[in-house]
Amino acid sequence: MRRLQVIGFLSAMMVSTSVAFADPPTIESVEIRGGEQSAEIAIRGEFAVPVYAIRARDNGQTVIIDVADAALEDGGVEAIGESPLIRSSVTTTTARGARIQLSLAEAARFRARSGSGRIFVRLDAGEAAQAAEEEPATDGARIEDVVLERRDGRERVVIELDGPARFRVDREESGPARLRVMGTRLSPDLRRNYPGLPEGLVRRVRVRYADGGSTIEVEREDGAIGTAIRAGSRIVWMFEAGDGPRRPRTRTIAREEDLRDEFEIEEGESTEVAAFLSDAPMQVRRSRGSRRYSGRRIDLDFKDADIHNILRLIAEVGRVNVVTADDVSGTVTIRMRNVPWDQALDVILQAKGLGMVRRGNLIRVAPLETLEKEREAAIARRKQRVQLEPLETRIVPVSYATATDLSARVAELLTERGSVSVDERTNLLIVRDINENLDDVEELVRTLDTQTPQVLIEARIVEATSQYSRDVGIQWGGNVAMNSASGNPTGLVFPNSIGIGGDNPRGNADNFLVNLPAITGAGQGGALGLTLGSVGGNVNLSVRLSAAEANGVVRIISSPRILTLDNHEAHIAQGTLIPFSQVSAQGVNTAFQEAKLELRVRPHVTSDGSVSMHVQITRDEPDFTRTSTRGDPTILKREAETDLLIPDGNTAVIGGIYTRNTGRNVDQIPFFGDIPVLGVLFQRRRVRDERNELLIFLTPRIVNRAEALPE
User: Fold this and answer.
1) Do the beta carbons of residue 214 and residue 184 sit within 8 Å?
2) Regarding predicted confidence, which is higher, 577 or 76?
3) Closest CA to 135 of 40, 56, 62
4) Number of continuous H segments (helices) and E segments (strands) in the chain
5) 190: which of 49, 234, 575, 584 lies 20 to 30 Å off by Cα?
6) Element (H or E) spanning 381, and its range?
């Protein structure tokens, strides 16, 4: 930043001031030429590469050219030449530079090019000003780097080039924004993708080469507006929030007239001004210690200098107009180095007990006592005007809200003479006050009197159960008889007869040596039996193989749903009452236990259309496979309770439970069951696998979103 060095030494009778600073860019001439359909404006001056911005207003019929940090020659600059397309031109100096404003006969598209000491703007009629095209003197530049930064409340994409180049911004209301830099190439070391800044408007920046030029593509938030300017060999592309906010914004429906003139600064610039024009603070408060100063830095060294000369010098440096009251007097001794001129002015005024009123580039300086008296007088005039203004009575209908509830909010906007009453039968507000306040009351009621959002909450409880079991068993045995009855005695005195068999050696039934059967029966498993015996029945062998296997899948879906108002709790339930006996001193009593499916929820609709809710879901059912000694069933409980935020119409899985039970049992004859291979003849094998999965889904829907949440 340029620095202004001022060293002044003043005596009581003579003022001697030495000022040394770099001359700012100066606009020397503005030339206009052209016909009815096109015109060209040539701006010439003493500057190297100008920093400027061009924008259109009034649907392209007004074109404004701002040249940063530039001044006009003494006496001003008048436009030379004329064109039927340009009705009038005005050249002025602002606190941020020079401005040329052109009023056109019809809408036109503009394009500009710049060079050393000149800016050329061409206007073509028949098209609204949709884009600005920069045309440098030479082509073939190379993009060296792309930088993302945040400055002055805007996000900036800075494209560094090694020379000037033509560029154009493709205006698109939605989707990625594209800036095309014609006739350029990309540096080999240049990255192609850049992530956006945290919580910023710019999400991502992509750089690519195509069609003989480079394209910078920016993914942005909805409604973000970009403005591109040239700053030397750089292209600065600035983004700020537009008409489409990312979240609902607050609205001002009533504002008291601000009478604190000494604290105000009125700025006439619009939000379309390019970012190099730094924003001045909107208010100046004496009690505000954190004020930011953005003026040029200066050095001041004065002794016993007259306050009027100091103010004139600061007005010259800051390019502002200063008007001093008659009762401002005194001398100042000050020594400052590298201080912004507006901060120096603030300090000098505080030291002398002075205040200022600033409107645009006009500053009025007066003693603080004078400004305070003016403020008190203005307050008195306002109070007197309110007391003398006639009262009106207005009936304000209320449709969705309760008039009694709104009356307290309305009373806060009324003056001391105002009053509000409620007609409960017709739900009307009867308001009496001055006309200005009645308009504010109507706007407040229209804002608050909206439909209460209704939310339909749908829950889905999905339970899937998978069961698998297998049981394989074996039974085998037999008998051998050696006695006289069977004709094959042993021939010995002892033992004369021998009988060998299973657990029932005297009979032929169930005489199994190995008795490990699987559980089979009607509709369950199967068995295969084999019997071998001799002709005389002396030797018999019986074998029985039994096996059972079961595999099943069960899926249960429960879908409770309920409709309720915003911030109102609702619940819906379905189930059974299971009786069970209770034994006490009074005898046996019968009580009931609930087993039900229940949804309990309290939703809250946010300003951006999402639904925040506290939800409790319960699903209980009786299990008659597991009973008590008296035959009462057990209750299987499944419950989820949580707080969550879900966008309107979206589905979220709020919880889930997955369980798996597996088992493997082997029954065998000791020792024999451990024999390899042959051990299976002495074993019974059982396998069981049970899986259970529970998922809970929740979907909220705002059924009257268009009426309850207007854009």
Assistant:
1) yes
2) 577
3) 40
4) 6, 44
5) 49
6) helix 368-388
- Taking the C-alpha atoms of residue 293 and residue 280, their distance in angstroms, rounded to an integer, is 8
At a CB cut-off of 8 Å and minimum separation 6, what does 316 contact? none
- Provide the token pair at 3: 């620095």
What number is the average pLDDT over the span 309-329?
88
- Preceding amide of 710 cis, omega within 30: no
User: Which residue type does 383 have?
Assistant: K
Tokens representing 698? Answer: 């929740």
DSSP string covering 401-460 = S-HHHHHHHHHTT--TT-EEEEETTTTEEEEEE-HHHHHHHHHHHHHH--PPPEEEEEEE
If phi over 0 gives left and psi between -120 and 50 gives alpha, with beta otherwise, what is residue 175?
A: left
384 three-class SS = helix
| pLDDT level of residue 268 (50, 70, 90 thresholds) | very low
The per-residue pLDDT for range 200-240, each reduced to its tens digit, is 788 889 888 877 788 898 888 877 888 888 777 788 888 88
Helix/strand/coil (H, E, C) string of 253-319? Answer: CCCCCCCCHHHEEECCCCCCCCCCCCCCCCECCCCCCCCCCCCCEEEEEEEEEEHHHHHHHHHHHHC
What does the pLDDT look like over 462-492, one tens digit per residue? 989 999 999 999 988 888 888 877 777 877 8
Is residue 635 within 8 Å of 620, Cβ to Cβ? yes
Q: What is the DSSP string of 662-685?
A: EEEEEEE-TTGGGSTTGGGGGEEE
Is the pTM higher than 0.85? The answer reads no
Q: Which residues, in sequence order, are CB contacts of 267 under 8 Å at separation 6+?
A: 279, 280, 282, 360
**Mean pLDDT, residues 514-519 taken together:** 88
Q: Report yes or no: 455 and 611 within 8 Å, Cβ to Cβ.
A: yes
SS3 349: helix
The radius of gyration of the chain's CA atoms, rounded to the nearest angstrom, is: 47
Q: What distance in Å separates the CA atoms of residue 673 and residue 632, rounded to the nearest whole number?
A: 41
Query: What pLDDT is attached to residue 14?
Result: 31
Tallying the residues shown for the chain, one arrives at: 711
What is the DSSP secondary structure assignment for residue 60, as one 8-state letter?
A: G
Contacts for 651 with CB less than 8 Å, ≥ 6 apart: 697, 698, 699
3-state secondary structure of 118: strand
Q: Are 549 and 518 in contact (CB under 8 A)?
A: no
Report the C-alpha gap between 295 and 284 in whole angstroms: 14
Round to the nearest angstrom and report the end-to-end CA distance of the chain.
44
C-alpha 286/C-alpha 307 separation (Å) is 20
With 0-12 CB in 10 A as exposed, 13-18 as middle and 19+ as buried, what is 360?
middle
Distance CA 9, CA 14 (A): 9
364 pairs with which residues across the strands? 323, 357
Cα-flanking dihedrals φ and ψ of residue 153, to 5°?
80, 5
Q: Are 267 and 360 in contact (CB under 8 A)?
A: yes
If we measure between CA atoms, which residue out of 24, 45, 41, 22 comes closest to residue 32? 41
Give all strands (DSSP E) within 47-132, no chain letters.
51-57, 62-68, 71-72, 79-80, 86-94, 97-104, 108-115, 118-125
Question: Which one is predicted more confidently, 280 or 346?
Answer: 346
Number of neighbouring beta carbons within 10 Å of residue 225: 18
Region of poorest pLDDT, from 396-400, 559-563, 606-610, 629-633? 629-633
Angle between the 435-448 and 403-411 helix axes, to the nearest 10 degrees? 140
Amino acid at 460: R
529: left (phi over 0), alpha (psi -120 to 50) or beta: beta
